[in-house]
Amino acid sequence: MFAISSRWIVRLAPRSLVCNTGIRIMSSQSPFIRDKAYIGGKWVAATNGGTFEVKNPATGEHLGVVPDMTESDAVFAIKTANEAFQSWKSTLARERTLLLRRLDQLMHEHKDSLAKLISLEMGKPIKEAKGEIMYAASMLEWFAEESRRIYGDVIAAPTKSKRLVVIKQPLGVASLITPWNFPCAMITRKAAAALAAGCTVVVKPSEDTPYSALALAQLTEEAGFPAGVFNVITSSRSNAAALGHVMCTHPMSASISFTGSTEVGKILMREAAEGIKRVALELGGHAPFIVFESADIDAAVVGAMMAKFRNCGQACVGANRFLIHSSIYDKFCSKLADAMKSQLVIGDSMDESVTIGPLINERAVEKVEKHIKDAVDNGASIVVGGDRNSRGNNYINPTLLRDVKPSMLMCQEETFGPVAPLIKFDTEEEAVSIANDTRSGLAGYFYTTNLLQAWRVAEALECGLVGINEGLVSTVESPFQGFKESGIGSEASKYGIEEYLEKKTICFGGL
């Protein structure tokens, strides 16, 4: 068992972090960029010496190299985490609470450096990146408290000679595969719950954004987490599938949690089925944004700007299809176009005034261009944007399209870019039918001032998160989950920790 020693008390006491002790600085642009993965409390290279390059998507600038780890490295990380689990699972909830609080404190102390790191490796505007750090830290604060609220039950026994008790215990090693679009928050939303439950974790971040994960590893070390409790393995795109396979199938990996595309999620779920692993998947979205005739149009435009253009449209809960009632269609289109022209600023992500940065890579831009071309070829009209921006190959201008039909490609697939397609509808039933005509079911938004309609539509939409007169619905207090092919399991809220706990019935007999 890990006891709270005097060494820990010193480390957990409020203090100013001695910045970046032991970090090998690879770039003058961020103190958190380093060239090693993190396993068992040590900074390690890939066993075969392989590395891959990380670039700034805004400029193409070389940021550094990180280990291109192989299956043997993943096995080593899982075995190391499992060894640490044998002691970590017995820590007192209070001990885990203190460590998570300390990690939360460190994230606040280094919020500017961490936000800068996000902007460098994935191009997110610095103001949004700072918001992500605060959201990520809120998960640590929340689950620090939830670790002390893992309650069991006493069940009325069927006979006088028995007593029935239900307790909850940590699963074991939690394997976490996280995406590039929220490279810090998607880790803490999973890892904070797992650590609070008493699990150890192995994190495999996206090959596009490994540095945010490695920065978190550095901070867990500074916070005083025991070696092997938090581990990070990195890999290139070519090795990602092999590492994912190990994380899903290794007998010491108790669970797999993945955020990313639906296609990859299905593969991981099939592989995890071999060992009957606990699986949590947060997958793609195709969110409808409905504006009914009674809506406050100005408020709907504000919500649309938030739901569509946050993170340059690269969010799984981002609005992907805009369904506008025919009686207000032209007015909404005009107001949204004006807002886009006046409020969206493309530029250097380090500039506080910038709201639109680059997409993650040129493949993402090409997909957006393909969707726009398909829409225009089939009768849609470009109101704003529609082309690349001159700043670079990964920049595309925010785009507004009208006269879009549900049959068009962008209404069948998630665009994942700054494109707002407007679809006209006449009745509530038609709008709900179009909104639900998808295998995705993550988020949905609608605007109305009709209370009865609000209840009807909220219950009718087939998705896990619904925003009524609101364009931003994700909070640490409420569960984040999808319907249909948008995933299984919940993150955040009081439900998030349940993904990392096993219920055990204990029957006392002979009483």
Automatic annotation (TrEMBL):
Reactions mediated catalytically: succinate semialdehyde + NAD(+) + H2O = succinate + NADH + 2 H(+)
Main location: mitochondrion
Record flagged with keyword Hydrolase: no
One matching Pfam family: Aldedh
Involved pathway(s): Amino-acid degradation; 4-aminobutanoate degradation
EC number(s) from the headed UniProt entry: 1.2.1.24
Subcellular locations according to the entry: Mitochondrion
Location of the Aldehyde dehydrogenase domain: 43-506
Swiss-Prot/TrEMBL keywords: Mitochondrion, NAD, Oxidoreductase
CDD domains, alphabetized: ALDH_F5_SSADH_GabD
Function: Catalyzes one step in the degradation of the inhibitory neurotransmitter gamma-aminobutyric acid (GABA).
Family affiliation: Belongs to the aldehyde dehydrogenase family.
Name the UniProt record assigns to this protein: Succinate-semialdehyde dehydrogenase
